[in-house]
Write a structure and sequence with these properties.
About 35% of the residues lie in helices and about 20% in strands. It has about 250 residues and is an alpha+beta fold. The strands form three sheets. It has a five-stranded mixed β-sheet with strand order 5-4-3-6-7. It has a three-stranded antiparallel β-sheet with strand order 8-10-9, with no helix packed on it. The chain has a two-stranded antiparallel sheet with strand order 1-2.
């Protein structure tokens, strides 16, 4: 009887350890929290993320495996958008559980495809090797209900102070819309600069929404300095006109 009790106790401990491990794997950095730091080998050498990217905006992408079709199309699209990200002062890295050497072989094969493009480009961003899953666990990229070894398609956007501003997850079978990720960065930067908000389907150059704070509807209505650029479309819905680029005289 005592042996059975001891065995049952060990079974409970083992189950508790598995539960704790799964909980660790599915922890997700929360918006507004400090981004977890990690050190890993990458195709650019040892990378300390996010510190090595300085005061830029940062994006960490995860993908399931190298050489898979959906992942390949995503890396190709990211390579084409490098200049747009650079113009927004965004630095980014891509992570999977594959080794650095497998990453390098994959990059070589993708660059061969890109070289036949009308506007050829080359992959010029680090790809992180996370074979032990340390970084994946920190960022909740392993979803045991989907896979115990492959990361889902995660997107983590950090501001210059390494605060998490956006978290997105996609299943392995659905490729990400990289243009939407660019738009999200533009929206985040606009909000940080203006302290206003972006409405649904906002695009750069469109009018912004006045949040409840720092301006309430009464604040806007009673301030001559604000009403010139603000307009109301409902009792509690105010917009601020977008700043239009100035046109040189004579044009």
């Amino acid at each position: 009887m005592k042996t059975k009790v001891v065995l049952f106790g060990f079974l409970l401990l083992w189950m508790g350890a598995l539960t704790a491990q799964n909980q660790k794997q599915t922890m997700i950095p929360l918006i507004g929290s400090k981004a977890p730091s990690f050190t890993a080998e990458s195709t650019f050498g040892t990378l300390n993320f996010p510190e090595d990217f300085g005061k830029s905006w940062k994006i960490l992408f995860s993908h399931p495996r190298d050489f898979t079709p959906v992942c390949t199309t995503e890396i190709m699209e990211l390579s084409r958008l490098q200049k747009q990200f650079e113009a927004l002062d965004v630095k980014f890295a891509v992570l999977s559980a594959d080794s650095k050497y497998r990453h390098l072989l994959w990059i070589k094969s993708i660059n061969e495809i890109l070289s036949a493009d009308k506007i050829p480009t080359q992959i010029n961003f680090p790809m992180i090797a996370d074979s032990l899953g340390d970084a994946s666990n920190l960022y909740g990229m392993i979803h045991p209900s989907a896979s115990n070894t492959k990361t889902v398609r995660g997107v983590f956007i950090l501001d210059p102070d390494n605060i998490v501003q956006t978290v997105l997850y996609y299943p392995m079978s659905v490729g990400r819309n990289m243009n939407e990720i660019v738009r999200t960065v533009e929206a985040l930067q606009t909000v940080a600069e203006t302290h206003l908000s972006t409405p649904a389907n906002w695009e750069p150059g469109h009018d912004l929404v006045v949040p409840r704070y720092p301006y309430s509807p009464d604040d806007v209505e009673n301030s001559p300095a604000l009403t010139e650029d603000f307009y109301r479309v409902g009792a509690f819905l105010w917009y601020k006109k977008a700043v239009k680029p100035s046109v040189p005289k004579g044009l």
